[in-house]
Amino acid sequence: MRESRLAMFLLVLPALAVVLALFVYPLAMSAVSSVTDKAGATTLDNFAKAWELYREDVIFTLLIVAVSTAFIGALSAGIGGYLVLGESRRAIAALRWLYRWPLFIPFIVAAQCMRTFLAKNGLMNNAFDTLGLIDVQNAVGFLDWRGIIVTFVWKQTPFVALIVAGAMASLDRSTIEAARNLGASRIRILLEIVLPQVSSAMIVGLTLSFVTMLSVLSVPIMISGGAPTMITVDMAFRINSYSDYGVANALGLISYAMTAIAAWAYLRSNAAKRGMA
Amino acid sequence: MRSALATILRGSGLGAVAFVVFGPITNLALWAFAVQWYFPYKLPVVWGFKYWYEVFKPRSDAWESLSTSVLIALFTVAACLVLAVPAGYAIARGRLPWRGGILLAFLLPQAIPSIAVYFNVARIFYGVGLNGTIAGVVLVHTVHGLVFAVWIAAAAFAAVDRELELAARNVGASALRSFLTVTLPLAAPGIMASVIFVFLESLDEFTGTYFVGVPDVTTLPLLMFTASVAGNYQIAAITALILLVPSVGFMLFIERFLKADVLAKVGG
Questions:
Q1: What are the DSSP calls for A168-215, one per residue?
Q2: Scanning every residue of chain A, which has its alpha carbon at the shortest distance from the alpha carbon of B260?
Q3: ipTM, two decimals
Q4: Has this prediction a pTM greater than 0.80?
Q5: How far is B156 from chain A (nearest CA, A)?
Q6: B81 in contact with A at a CB cutoff of 8 Å?
Q7: Nearest-by-Cβ selection for B113 from A95, A239, A256
């Protein structure tokens, strides 16, 4: 028995060693480097400097990711809800076919698509102009914080919607039918019966997507060049222009802290659910 | 009357979704075939394949970075398979010490923002001469791919009935032989799905390559980024379309490989 446990552990060891050496070790290195100055002494100067230079960007990043997550949650609830509660089979089939497309499109391609689509004279403004909704001569482009949010929501909604729709499809339909027979509206069934039962799937999807958005460098660079920008861009700038690992790693630690908040929200919702059960 | 109104509402709703989903992709495709396109024209002024010749001419940057990208993706798939098949088997067949902690370690690269990790990896690689090499980029992609590879392989092995394996052992097959002739073939569709995920992740990866690959390794996403930032929208659009081909192709086929019984075991 003991030999077998050892054999199993040896089978996992190579993969584990790669993750430890090339992910966990650099992760620890970034934590150490963020509190070390160039001479090697322990200091909080890097955080002070990061806060002084990039305070606006830190807040801006948090806002962009939070707003995007809220939109992604609302839209995927709507998509999943329509797939479960919709009345027209053809419309459900069409929506199921439509919504998934951005899922496998790389972030960098999504960014290039949006860079042209959301520009002042991009396809979006031109289409609205043709419909007579706006005059493209006086229109504005959306290549700023709004463009970053649009790109994130466009790219990540299918991912969360896929997870949420999967969870909704495996729900027990009898409560839904019962509520429907009692005359509850579809919105009410979605909000009061369906969503509470899929909340853990929704939160897993939103947490993964929150982390992904905090790691993406191409979208903020390509969509919005100017300040304020996201801290991913600031980190790349500190490294490429100044080789300033201290401040870059301090910003890195701030991004881990943002993730920790998301993880804490996830664990708390899990604990609350266990408390109820 | 009411149902006619519902049909109109439904139709315009779906139309709006279609516009949001396909509008950005359409704009990209238009740029790929635009030779001249300037304000205030709503469509390209001169259409043509001029930039396609430029991208696909012999010994162009695009060919070179395409072959670099595919080479890196193939090495990454090979490295992930070698590491993930034994690891996934051990996780699926249990009796593993610290199983929860090990599963968590494989999840970390997806659960923590990776950009700060990438430039610290680049710093380590700089010290050992791996910066700007294919091997360095493959290593970075492998770590990221291992999440999918290990979790999906573990789920695929867990879905294989243990009795079949024991039956092979009972009639005298060695452990290795029963694994190679019974377990592995049965888990193959799931493993294939993880191969596809890893290949796509590697092909599309930007941030890690951006820090570790410079200045010598230019993959397709890096070429696209450079073209886009330089304002060369036609080259960027054509390169982006090349990147879209495998993504969309695999999206249409992935469901054949990733069966529901395997999906149900992911994370179990």
A1: HHTS-HHHHHHHHHTT--HHHHIIIIIHHHTHHHHHHHHHHHHHHHHH
A2: A166
A3: 0.86
A4: yes
A5: 16
A6: no
A7: A256
